[in-house]
Specification:
Blueprint lengths: L1 E3 L24 H14 L4 H8 L6 H8 L3 E3 L2 H8 L2 H13 L1 H11 L3 H12 L8 E2 H11 L3 H16 L9 E2 L12 H7 L15 H14 L9 E5 L15 E2 H6 L3 E2 L11 E5 L8 E4 L1 H9 L3 H15 L1
Antiparallel strand pairs: 1-2, 3-4, 5-7, 5-9, 6-8, 8-9
Helix pairs in contact: 3-8, 5-7, 5-14, 6-11, 7-11, 7-14, 8-9, 9-10, 10-11, 13-14
């Protein structure tokens, strides 16, 4: 299975250079930027915000290089887990869970999302805030919007970023993220910020860069609004019987736990499945792998965060290991 890291956090120094041949049209970056500024003004973005964020900027050559040559890793599921759910990440997760338990508990009660999942997402996205990216978000998005390859998408994200600045959530110089525009300790794209970021400490700013209260609450809000259920977990690794028809796996096939039990699915240690009336599916994260998991609706919520079975399963596994 091929996993593409489209916006993997990179702590790199942004190098600003002119790239006149980037755009697929003959419009220069200066001309393009002037037209964009005019449109932003008409949409309600103030001149002050535009001056502070779009003055004296040029496309970043490194971003185009990364976009053109995105590393595509062919990893087995186990290789991915070894990298993403490392022993050090589990240990740091336990420490961060313990150190923030009071805040996590209050956030959990408000959004009905178990604390361990908030810590697991935090750990996988930015290694608990240590790797949030070293690129200026507005310039990164402007570079990609001007480039032409995916200009429509990144142009919308650029306008969302300007809106975030207009609302005063972060200063332009501190609005840093990955080369593709994912921001803060949640690695939210600007559109995700607009939809899910939450001002939990009520200081007037949704600060996913520095405020743990806002970071945890924003992640919880995302999951809650994605259909999270606090009375169930994400799933569990299971053992399929010999000769199990893999055509019955996948998220489109939904049965109760009792029905899967009748078909021979068991816990990984061979014991019976939980006697709960929960709808579940059987997922093989790696098409050619043998490890399979029985997953519930919360797994689908994790997929709304990142549409990768590797990712969703890793979050679930890390969340379990943090509290066990």
């Amino acid at each position: 299975m091929k996993i593409k890291f489209l916006a993997f956090p990179l702590s790199l120094v942004a190098i600003f250079v002119a790239l006149p041949a980037l755009c697929q049209t003959n419009v220069t970056f200066s001309e393009w930027l002037l037209e964009l500024r005019n449109e932003a003004l008409e949409s309600g973005i103030s001149q002050q915000t535009l001056e502070s964020s779009l003055t004296n900027i040029s496309p970043i050559a490194r971003i185009i290089e990364l976009d053109r040559k995105q590393p595509e890793f062919t990893l087995t599921f186990q290789e991915y887990l070894d990298r993403i759910v490392s022993r050090s990440r589990v240990n740091q997760g336990k420490i961060n869970f313990s150190n923030n338990i009071d805040l996590l508990t209050t956030v959990s009660k408000k959004f009905n999302v178990q604390p361990r999942f908030l810590v697991a997402l935090w750990g996988i996205e930015t290694n608990y805030g240590q790797n949030t990216g070293g690129f200026p978000v507005v310039v990164s998005l402007a570079t990609l919007a001007y480039d032409g390859r995916r200009s429509k998408y990144f142009r919308k994200e650029l306008f969302n970023a300007l809106r975030i600045l207009e609302e005063g959530h972060i200063e332009p110089s501190k609005m840093m993220g990955s080369w593709a525009g994912a921001m803060g300790q949640n690695q939210f794209m600007p559109s995700s910020f607009i939809n899910y970021a939450y001002d939990y400490n009520k200081d007037g700013k949704k600060d996913i860069w520095n405020s743990k209260a806002d970071i945890f609450a924003s992640a919880a809000n995302y999951l809650s609004r994605s259909g999270w259920k606090s009375d169930i977990t994400w799933g569990r690794e299971v053992k399929a019987p010999k000769g199990f028809n893999k055509d019955m796996s996948g998220l489109k096939v939904i049965k109760t736990i009792n029905q899967w039990q009748a078909l021979g699915i068991r816990k990984i240690d061979g014991s019976n499945l939980p006697a709960r009336n929960i709808k579940a599916s059987i997922v093989y994260p790696s098409k050619n792998g043998n490890r399979c998991f029985m997953v519930y609706d919360n797994y689908r919520a994790l997929l709304r965060w990142n549409r990768s079975n590797y990712f969703a399963t890793a979050v679930g596994i890390l969340s379990d290991m943090i509290v066990n």
